[in-house]
Amino acid sequence: MRNPNMIGLVRNEVTKIASKRRFAVVAIILIVLVSMFTYAQYRDIQEQIKKQGTLDWRVELQQDIVDTQNRLASSSIQDEFRQFLEFDLKQNQYYLDNDINPNYPGAPTFIRIFFSQGLTLILPLFIIVIMADIVSGEQNDGTIKTLLSRPVRRWKILMAKWLTVLLYTSMLMALTVAVCYAISGIVLGYDGWTAPILTGFQASPSGTFSTEFVHTLPMWEYLLMAVGLAWIVTAVVGTIALMVSVLVKNTATGIGIMMAVLISGTLLTTLGSSWTSSKYLVNVNFGLINYLDGQAPPIEGMTLPFSLAVLGCWTVAALIVAFWNFTQKDMY
């Protein structure tokens, strides 16, 4: 029997995943979600016209600033939420002072918001749905025995599976951009790729805010960075899901573990300021796009290079555990 090369192994993995139609299911869910969010934004626009009688972004932004100031006047606001409101207030005021619309109407802005809001849960969840049983499923149905009987080293088999994870991560990013652009553009229009957006704001959990390094970028350049950061986070989640699939034979258990990782990350990001060591946990560092927006990190000392380093270390550790276990344990 001819020894298959890596391309052949990856093609085999893609064929197996495609036969399960999970990517198609994810695509359908994504279309439904984007349609719902687009409709919600359409209703928001209609409410703005009804309330303010105009779509002038300056009027809307001024009203947002006034509303935020009124909320800050309340003494019942928690400190963490107060810091968030103060950052939002200062950022909006900076946009207004520099005559830049922070939410330029168009599909590109919708893409930016969707990636920012969906990075820590929706996109990682999709890759889990696609990849959760990439190893454990084959152990359950016995196909792993046939695969291991071929004249190919085990590490090559697992490497092909990991490359497949990265491939589907890239496909998921492309699908998300395409669906967001196609559907939201129907309501919001398809312009806005060159609209200016500000980045470089610096905020800290202690409440400091700096505009020293603020600069403008065209929307397309910002989106390239945002999608790239989303790709990194989703690839890390996919890699950890691969490790869990190697370690846990039951697919449902593996999905449960990964769901716990995602949900606990959301909770720790909110509550982590009182547990500074949690900044070294992988799921606390999923909000990479927040660094582009200049939002304060959940824990003092966290920066984009720091979070990338933490994610890199966890990825390497997950690969080491997965490869060692896959090459050593009895799959029969």
UniProtKB/TrEMBL annotation:
<feature type="transmembrane region" description="Helical">
    <location>
        <begin position="255"/>
        <end position="275"/>
    </location>
</feature>
<feature type="transmembrane region" description="Helical">
    <location>
        <begin position="113"/>
        <end position="136"/>
    </location>
</feature>
<keyword id="KW-1133">Transmembrane helix</keyword>
<keyword id="KW-0472">Membrane</keyword>
<dbReference type="Pfam" id="PF12679">
    <property type="entry name" value="ABC2_membrane_2"/>
</dbReference>
<keyword id="KW-0812">Transmembrane</keyword>
<feature type="transmembrane region" description="Helical">
    <location>
        <begin position="222"/>
        <end position="248"/>
    </location>
</feature>
<feature type="transmembrane region" description="Helical">
    <location>
        <begin position="157"/>
        <end position="184"/>
    </location>
</feature>
<feature type="transmembrane region" description="Helical">
    <location>
        <begin position="306"/>
        <end position="326"/>
    </location>
</feature>
<protein>
    <submittedName>
        <fullName>ABC transporter permease</fullName>
    </submittedName>
</protein>
<feature type="transmembrane region" description="Helical">
    <location>
        <begin position="21"/>
        <end position="42"/>
    </location>
</feature>
<dbReference type="GO" id="GO:0005886">
    <property type="term" value="C:plasma membrane"/>
</dbReference>
<dbReference type="GO" id="GO:0140359">
    <property type="term" value="F:ABC-type transporter activity"/>
</dbReference>
